[in-house]
Amino acid sequence: MMTCGMYDKELEVAVRVVHLACSLCQRVQETLVYRRADQVMSKEDDSPVTIADWSVQATVCWILSDSFKDQKVSIVAEEDVQTLSKADSADLLRSVTNTVNECLQEAPKYGLQKPKKTLEASEILKAISQCNSTGGPTGRHWILDPVDGTLGFVRGDQYAVALSLIQEGKVVLGVLGCPNYPMKKEWLNHQYSLSMSLLSTPASDMREGGCVMYAQRGSGKAWMQPLKNGGMKLQWLQSAKEIQVSSIDDPALATFCEPVEIANSNHSFAAGVAHSMGLKKQPLRVHSMVKYAAIARGDAEIFMKFARAGYKEKIWDHAAGVVIVEEAGGVVTDAGGRPLDFSKGVYLEGLDRGIVACSGATLHEKLIGAVYASWDSSNL
Ligand SMILES: Nc1ncnc2c1ncn2[C@@H]1O[C@H](COP(=O)(O)OS(=O)(=O)O)[C@@H](OP(=O)(O)O)[C@H]1O
Ligand SMILES: [Mg+2]
Ligand SMILES: [Mg+2]
Ligand SMILES: [Mg+2]
């Protein structure tokens, strides 16, 4: 038996809906790489958002609400309906509505219920805006990043669908869908590009590619499955294999990963820390929570993110990745060595400088020491 925890039912629904959401993203990404300009919108903070971000949020909201009808489902998620409800956004809303309805039609293939009738645009808006919970220290809250690494997504590169559950302020399960991160390791080392692989690989082969990872808190185990495009009605656990962090603890042999964008993490500070702790390899720059996935799977040993001072990290950018890395045997803390606190609402309040994840305690101690030593000489 691959799960035997308190949240088996929640985990099963979460894994199924993440598979479903990944298939939606794959379809949208294929069209996006050819028609980028008019399909990528900007939010108020200038970050990108697409049909996929809203559509996944509406889809996951509908499935969770339907699957847990007896509960008042609380969802903390990234997107809101501001852009979508503007007067000149009618086409956009129509695209989202169609995308969600098409996706939900496929739900039975994934062992989930589909709606009895086609959802109206107003119901889609309602579903998206219903994900406006702020989490907190009590009760049960789903945490969703419908598309994490939207920039990677629009570039035809790495991105993730991240769903997790917090209970009394603790992350109790996490699921990460990584449609462009194949089961085999070597793929991550090349920069993944959908547009390139579409030219060189038959689309069907490429669609076999991705994986979904998941873990339940306290199980001491984390799992990976191939992404199922044709559905997964029965025996959803069967194709899962256990994953574990890397056993490398020599910094000279370790690989570290970090965000692609300099705006999202201070690369030069990370390089200083890397040098100071004796890392020798070039950093692996990857969009999205695929970085946590790489640590959990043993494809890399260290993840560092040092956002600019004043930026507040959001829980949906980390929750699923953290529980999967920890259950796979890794360590995740802030740059001061303290565990991340998911109980304070939407933000990781009180975060000390940045976030680090390591495959084990030896590398983690060295990393925290190197941050401490490098801090004075930096001006983050
Ligand atoms: N200024 C700034 N500083 C730090 N972090 C920020 C910043 N702006 C955005 N974000 C969040 O970063 C999420 C993407 O992180 P990544 O590690 O994938 O970044 S990168 O694309 O590889 O550069 C990204 O998640 P998504 O919006 O889901 O893509 C953001 O939540
Ligand atoms: Mg994100
Ligand atoms: Mg996102
Ligand atoms: Mg975003």
UniProtKB/TrEMBL annotation:
<comment type="function">
    <text>Converts adenosine 3'-phosphate 5'-phosphosulfate (PAPS) to adenosine 5'-phosphosulfate (APS) and 3'(2')-phosphoadenosine 5'-phosphate (PAP) to AMP.</text>
</comment>
<protein>
    <recommendedName>
        <fullName>3'(2'),5'-bisphosphate nucleotidase</fullName>
        <ecNumber>3.1.3.7</ecNumber>
    </recommendedName>
</protein>
<dbReference type="InterPro" id="IPR020583">
    <property type="entry name" value="Inositol_monoP_metal-BS"/>
</dbReference>
<feature type="binding site">
    <location>
        <position position="145"/>
    </location>
    <ligand>
        <name>Mg(2+)</name>
    </ligand>
</feature>
<feature type="binding site">
    <location>
        <position position="317"/>
    </location>
    <ligand>
        <name>Mg(2+)</name>
    </ligand>
</feature>
<dbReference type="InterPro" id="IPR020550">
    <property type="entry name" value="Inositol_monophosphatase_CS"/>
</dbReference>
<comment type="similarity">
    <text>Belongs to the inositol monophosphatase superfamily.</text>
</comment>
<dbReference type="InterPro" id="IPR000760">
    <property type="entry name" value="Inositol_monophosphatase-like"/>
</dbReference>
<dbReference type="InterPro" id="IPR006239">
    <property type="entry name" value="DPNP"/>
</dbReference>
<dbReference type="Pfam" id="PF00459">
    <property type="entry name" value="Inositol_P"/>
</dbReference>
<dbReference type="GO" id="GO:0000103">
    <property type="term" value="P:sulfate assimilation"/>
</dbReference>
<dbReference type="GO" id="GO:0008441">
    <property type="term" value="F:3'(2'),5'-bisphosphate nucleotidase activity"/>
</dbReference>
<keyword id="KW-0479">Metal-binding</keyword>
<feature type="binding site">
    <location>
        <position position="78"/>
    </location>
    <ligand>
        <name>Mg(2+)</name>
    </ligand>
</feature>
<dbReference type="GO" id="GO:0046872">
    <property type="term" value="F:metal ion binding"/>
</dbReference>
<feature type="binding site">
    <location>
        <position position="148"/>
    </location>
    <ligand>
        <name>Mg(2+)</name>
    </ligand>
</feature>
<keyword id="KW-0460">Magnesium</keyword>
<keyword id="KW-0378">Hydrolase</keyword>
<dbReference type="GO" id="GO:0043647">
    <property type="term" value="P:inositol phosphate metabolic process"/>
</dbReference>
<dbReference type="GO" id="GO:0046854">
    <property type="term" value="P:phosphatidylinositol phosphate biosynthetic process"/>
</dbReference>
<dbReference type="InterPro" id="IPR051090">
    <property type="entry name" value="Inositol_monoP_superfamily"/>
</dbReference>
